[in-house]
Structures are given as C-alpha cells and as structure tokens.
Amino acid sequence: MATPPDEPAIIAATSLEARAVRRHAPQAHVVVSGIGLARLHASSLGRVAISCGLAGGLRADLPTGTIVIPSSVSTTDGVSIACDPDWTLRLRRAAREVAGAFVDAPLLTSATLINGSERAEWASRGFAAVDMESGRILVDLLAVVRVILDTPSSELSTAWLNPARAMLNPRNWSEALWLSREAPKCADLAGRVIAAALRRR
C-alpha cells in the first residue's frame, strides 16, 4: 500500500526492526525493505521516508546502543544526501526524550559489511556508523535514526548477510547468542525514538 504523500514511510530492513517500530508506533506506515533494499518497491513510498533500525559503528568510542541521527548520508561511491532538517530535529528531540543523548555525525551507506581497517578508514573521514539502506532511499525528504549494534571491537561476520545460512555454521553460534541479546534491544530503542518523534507532530 502506498504511503500518503506527507506521511513518513518508516523503512526497516528486517522484520526485527519493523516489529520494534510497530510495537511502539502501531499507527506508523512501516515498510520492510530487506537488507540493502532488496525488497523495496518505490510505489510503497510517498515524499517522506525515515530510515530506521540498526547500524555498524565505525568509531571506537561509540558503543552498542548509541543512537545516530545524521544531518547527511553518503554512499561509499561518493553520493551525499542532506537529511530533512525538520524531521531530523523531531528525531533528535525524541532521542533526548527516550535516551538522553544521540550522535550527530554523517552516516555511511555501503553495499557490503564494513569490517577491520575499513572501519577506521571511514571513521577518519568523519562517519559515525554504516548501514546498507539509507543512502539509497530515493524520496524528496529523508531522515534517519540508527542504533549501533556491532562495533570495531565486536564485529559481525559477513555470513549474517544471509542469517538462515549463517545459523547452519557452528562457527557463527557465539555471534548468534550475542545478536539474540543485543539486536532486539537496539531495534527496540530505534522504535521508541520513532514513536516519540511521531507523537511530536
């Protein structure tokens, strides 16, 4: 179903992230895009979109659970998008209400997981976190709220790009336990920020 033109479509990559938004903001129009927007149909969007969910941290000083609400998003190939100032302000006020703090620094969007020395490289360019969706969402007005899950000191295997396959490999089971504990908490935090921002309209 298409989003009304001035209502924000809440873009969530996974069902985990989408459920968190729906739990706290049942009135929101949530679109499950798939990782890297693999399942996104442009017809489901209006003029406004809020990219919501998890991110990988790039800076060593940003732990799991850090909220990132950027003023801009850039792709690894150099395309930069300015986030809508009005919705960004609403999200930041909501983040202060929900968690007391957030990080205002650019977000990177990559087609692949960023790990190892690449994290430090992108951090040195000013980016706080990385996702696989935000910089590829084509709408008139974009805002972003992401909560850091994995960090430079706690990286995820690229196997998790296909979670079902990753679970078949015992080498990934310790990461699976960590993910089962931390990912829902981070997704829930993003959902609470969205809900608080929508209440402020």
Low-confidence stretches: none
Mean pLDDT across the residues is 93
Largest beta-sheet characterization: 9 strands, mixed
Order of helices and strands: EHEEEEEHEHEEHH
How much helix, percentage-wise, in residues? 25-40%
Approximate strand percentage:
15-25%
Number of strands: 9
Per CATH, the superfamily is: Nucleoside phosphorylase domain
Q: For the record, what CATH class applies?
A: Alpha Beta
What is the overall number of helices?
A: 5
Structural class by sheet pairing and helices: alpha/beta
Rg over CA atoms, rounded to whole Å, is: 16 Å
CATH level 3 topology: Rossmann fold
CATH architecture label name: 3-Layer(aba) Sandwich
Write down the overall geometry: globular
> How many discrete structural domains?
1
What's the N-to-C terminus distance?
A: 22 Å
